[in-house]
């Protein structure tokens, strides 16, 4: 047997493989090494707070919202994908999301979003105001309520264009429920001439308007509105409810004519 004892420390000689290995790069967010992960997430905010990302601050990156309580959250920019996990009693607005928005393990929340795909799992008691290019999917969730996307702001049309979304292609009510045993979704009540979010807007004595915790000065500077005449996404009620209103049909051949038609019908 050999002697395992030695008089001094063993000198470690690096192998050729170790010498050739490049140094590890610091973790970054996305493909841009200058992006910091913490700039693209709101995490574990437990006190009621206003959390905002204004136009131009996300620029098509993915975004994560997790573990927030009682917060009003505004992502008013293009996103690639959005993950919302384990949030309670939050109000969350998400601008055009070019891929999927995942909503998981959330309770008592209001979600306003425009997405390529909307998916939810293990959620309870959530209101969703939605523009979805594809059929929304719900799974193992209860007491979900849906309505059409009901607000606008100055740069929203530009963001829709950047995401290649058509305001006319909205499948918010064509919901596929993977687990109907957990309960069916229900449509939120709507009026023919009013955004369903109108009751949430607060008008102050000086006439200024605020939305949740978003102050009136920010609302004004962003042009954020739930006014029926300002909406770029046509309000639709889906097949589950009927609105008492006069009916007008407009036949258009391109998006420019479609936008003009909306403006004329609302005038």
Number of DSSP helical runs = 4
In total, the number of strands is 14
For the sheet with most strands, the description reads: 12 strands, parallel
- The overall pLDDT, averaged over residues, is 83
Which runs of at least 5 residues are low in confidence (pLDDT < 50)? 3-7
Instruction: State the oligomer.
Output: single chain
Structure description:
There is one protein chain. With 267 residues, the protein is α/β, with parallel strands linked by helices. It has a single domain (35-266), classed as Pectate Lyase C-like. The protein has 4 helices and 14 strands. The chain has helices spanning 16-20, 156-162, 216-222, 255-266, and strands at 41-43, 50-53, 63-66, 72-75, 82-85, 91-104, 107-121, 124-132, 137-139, 142-148, 176-177, 186-187, 201-203, 209-211. The strands form 2 sheets. Strands 1, 2, 3, 4, 5, 6, 7, 8, 9, 10, 11 and 12 form a 12-stranded parallel sheet that branches. Strands 13-14 form a two-stranded antiparallel sheet. A hairpin with a 5-residue loop joins strand 13 (201-203) and strand 14. The longest helix is centred in the last third of the chain and has 12 residues, at 255-266. It is globular, with a radius of gyration of 24 Å. The model is unreliable at 3-7 (pLDDT under 50).
């Amino acid at each position: 047997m050999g002697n395992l004892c030695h008089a001094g420390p063993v000198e470690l000689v690096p192998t050729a493989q170790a010498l050739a290995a490049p140094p590890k790069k610091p973790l970054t967010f996305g493909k841009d090494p200058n992006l910091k992960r913490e700039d693209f997430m709101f995490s574990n905010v437990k006190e009621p707070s206003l959390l905002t990302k204004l136009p131009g601050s996300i620029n098509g990156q993915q975004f994560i919202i997790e573990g927030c309580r009682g917060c009003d959250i505004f992502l008013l920019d293009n996103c690639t994908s959005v993950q919302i996990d384990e949030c309670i009693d939050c109000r969350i607005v998400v601008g055009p999301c070019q891929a999927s928005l995942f909503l998981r393990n959330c309770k008592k929340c209001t979600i306003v979003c425009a997405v390529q795909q909307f998916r939810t799992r293990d959620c309870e008691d959530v209101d969703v105001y939605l523009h979805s290019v594809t059929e929304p999917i719900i799974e193992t969730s209860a007491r979900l309520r849906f309505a059409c996307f009901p607000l606008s702001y100055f740069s929203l049309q530009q963001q829709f264009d950047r995401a290649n979304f058509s305001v006319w292609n909205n499948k918010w009510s064509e919901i596929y429920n993977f687990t109907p045993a957990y309960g069916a979704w229900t449509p939120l009540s709507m009026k023919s001439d009013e955004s369903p979010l109108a009751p949430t807007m607060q008008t102050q004595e000086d006439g200024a308007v605020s939305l949740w915790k978003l102050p009136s000065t920010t609302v004004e500077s962003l042009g954020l509105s739930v006014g029926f005449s300002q909406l770029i996404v046509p309000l639709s009620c889906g097949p589950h409810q009927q609105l008492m209103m006069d009916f007008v049909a407009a036949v258009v051949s391109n998006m420019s004519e479609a936008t003009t038609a909306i403006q004329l019908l609302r005038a």
